[in-house]
Amino acid sequence: MSTFIRRYSRYLNEKAVSYRQVAFDFTKVKRGADGVMRTMNTEKLLKTVPIIQNQMDALLDFNVNSNELTNGVINAAFMLLFKDAIRLFAAYNEGIINLLEKYFDMKKNQCKEGLDIYKKFLTRMTRISEFLKVAEQVGIDRGDIPDLSQAPSSLLDALEQHLASLEGKKIKDSTAASRATTLSNAVSSLASTGLSLTKVDEREKQAALEEEQARLKALKEQRLKELAKKPHTSLTTAASPVSTSAGGVMTAPAIDMFSTPSSSNSTSKLPNDLLDLQQPTFHPSVHAMSAAPQVASTWGGKLPFCVNAV
Fold first, then answer.
1. Does the pLDDT value for residue 12 go beyond 90?
2. CB under 8 Å to 308, separation ≥6 — which residues?
3. Which of 22, 218, 232, 262 is deepest in the core (most CB within 10 A)?
4. CATH number of the domain that 38 lies in?
5. Whose CA is closest to 102, among 169, 181, 174, 46?
């Protein structure tokens, strides 16, 4: 079992390396006529497809047979690899379609790289077919396994002859019309393979969505049953001891710990102090006291003069 765990770990490491190199996941990339691999330019395509090949090699190196899948851990790892294999090969297939469409317009060095990539693709298509046979043997539904249509062998001959012509070698006479027909047939075969891969992926997504909805429905029903078992009065009349104690705390008067105790003397003295501030203290001068008898004698009598000393 440890051998297959290490192989699966190697695939995960290679998947992480691929993500660091291209900044996206091949198993989640947009596919179709306007997908990432179909719209990629020649220079970037020649650099990206080998990265997919390395990841595909790491996946296929799991190399398990149906007898070894009786182990639960090995079987779980194989199922995860099976899901990735469908999506990864779909991106790989679209990259090859884009490569073939651009091949006859490439330069000599680019054609040489492209031909080498296509030969490796044919080898990996054989290996992925064997991988899918193992999946069928362990009980995966035949409808969940895509049909892989290989390109005609005449396409490889046409690619090799085109490269030979660019290198100045003698080649068989072939018209542009026959070459275009061969290319069209090959692209059509690979496109049907891509369509089959896409259908399998869509069915898998739909099955996962239905399973998730079924689980959610079961959880809702279980929750409703639990609520039905509880008495209704306990939900409406039961008072929480925390809330009761909280209410008592809220009704109690607040005590200021930093205030100074007040006295009745200070309270009664406050108005007097305010009046004293408004009425300044009066001190009679010496001139006023000496002038008082003169005023009294003027009127013919002695007037009492009182001075309130404060």
1. yes
2. 282
3. 22
4. 1.20.58.150
5. 46
